[in-house]
């Protein structure tokens, strides 16, 4: 038997625990060779008075296993708290956020049956650097920070990804007509690095019209590389019009550590009701298995998941009377995937 | 006869001159009581060595007429040039950018037949303040600036607009989970001012999921108010999925001056070919006529324009074999609208 790979797991907040349970049950049934080490982060840690939402024990586990499967977490609103998601990405140097979005037509409703786009989002800079201040009673500011090494890293990653996966085109989205220094640098580096990938088509669009065309004709896009904030917005758009944000997983890639998660949030309004779709986190987990070299079990799970959707076994978010066969809960969906393994 | 209202007109760059010609011909044929004063701004002015793209004579005209019908203009890329669009908006204090988007189903193809959304975009602050600098060889920064008076103005405008036009709901989009001071202030002011409009439903969404739901289910939205950059992105998205960015006009509202334009750019690739759709600028012109009190001629033009589209007289961007009747050029489209007056 394969040596088990230690991974760090956080059950998160809101719907986190139930979708993590469903996901880990599927991985276990499929024989994934992982040994999860559970850490507590997010809401409970805040409530204990730790305004960072994460403690030293959790950091140690992350630094040791270097592979993190994370359910959605909640950061309290209010100026005393920095987003824990952002803290983790920055602290672990997770510079690339890879978000594949794929239509599952005809099994899951979409207006865009040919959608197959991978969003590669810069993950550490931009307005996410968290530099905000009150300048006077009525004036507040946020610093958008862009560095050349940051641009180089993400853009090289995007082209390497395209090459590795046989993708044909990389589209870069910026607002370089307004932000000539910051977005201008991102685009300049895109041109410089793109020149080393002659076999891959290159395209640049201003983010406003680029996002509009992505939302209208996503089948015209292949790999998209962009700055942190634009990537945040367009990845939700593309995942949603592919079927649902509930379907998309993401890989947060660093030089030393990697974190896998769903792209959606903790949805406290439906927490604990056994109705959430565990697919986003499961997709994250499948990317994790690929990453740690367990390709076979990853594709077994992917196929079982597809078969479940094809059989019309659907959670409430995608249930369509007449087309879906069964409206199931979170755990029943996991059971169905397990049966299809 | 009505006293003619003096307005300032700029023919702009790229497709600007031809769509302005088409638009003014329609206004003239409909008997709009305007007396246009033409100014030269944009490309030609840059080429004469004026890096602002606008001269004193143009400013004087704008300050005198206070009503500006503007075709798309081009600002050269490169760090020596500030966007002329932004310069005009800021100099004239055009704080609100109003962008109505409406489906013309079944006459114009759309996947969203019930779309009817008005985007009200803050127009002076945010990363558009144009404060960027190179901090070191490898680090560049852009300042996102938000002020309380700026938030108050745009949010009050959005609620007053909703009230005046009998709209039922105002949705506010921010990223206040990350930018707690800047976007946080916008949302706080939304709550404060919203409280004075008990008859209007209020909703707040994080921009990522908000943009995703707008792109997927636009029929669930009514009036949307948001910060400058988000507004830029989502207005292109909503206009495009309603039919085409080529259809949307916008009003840039200030306390003293007002500017009307298409939301699209100068499209140099198709300039001078008589194929551009003049509808976006015409919609801007119709909003202008409403604004200067010529409601009757505004609605005559609107109806003639709708009749033209309903008759299947379509420019190339929206031509669909089988459904459209005639594929016409820019000026022929204008002729058809004039015939329907
Ligand atoms: C929860 C939030 C901080 C996060 C982000 O903005 O990056 C989320 O929207 C995401 O896309 O992963
Ligand atoms: C041309 C550009 C400066 C402008 C903007 O970003 O505001 C345009 O995209 C718009 O939406 O009017």
Give the secondary structure arrangement, pairings included.
The structure is a homodimer of 341-residue chains.
Chain A: E1 5-10, H1 16-29, E2 34-39, H2 43-47, H3 56-65, E3 67-70, H4 84-91, E4 94-102, E5 116-122, E6 132-136, E7 139-147, H5 148-164, E8 169-174, H6 182-194, E9 201-206, H7 207-216, E10 223-226, H8 228-242, E11 249-254, E12 258-262, H9 279-291, H10 295-310, E13 313-315, E14 326-328, H11 330-339
Parallel strand pairs in A: 1-2, 1-3, 3-12, 5-10, 8-9, 8-10, 13-14
Antiparallel strand pairs in A: 4-5, 4-11, 6-7, 11-12
Helix pairs in contact in A: 1-9, 1-11, 5-6, 7-8, 9-10, 10-11
Bound molecules: 3-isopropylmalic acid (2 copies).
One 3-isopropylmalic acid sits between chains A (83, 85-86, 232, 263, 265) and B (177-178, 208).
Protein name (chains A, B): Isocitrate dehydrogenase [NADP]
Organism (chains A, B): Rhodocytophaga aerolata
Catalytic activity (chains A, B): D-threo-isocitrate + NADP(+) = 2-oxoglutarate + CO2 + NADPH
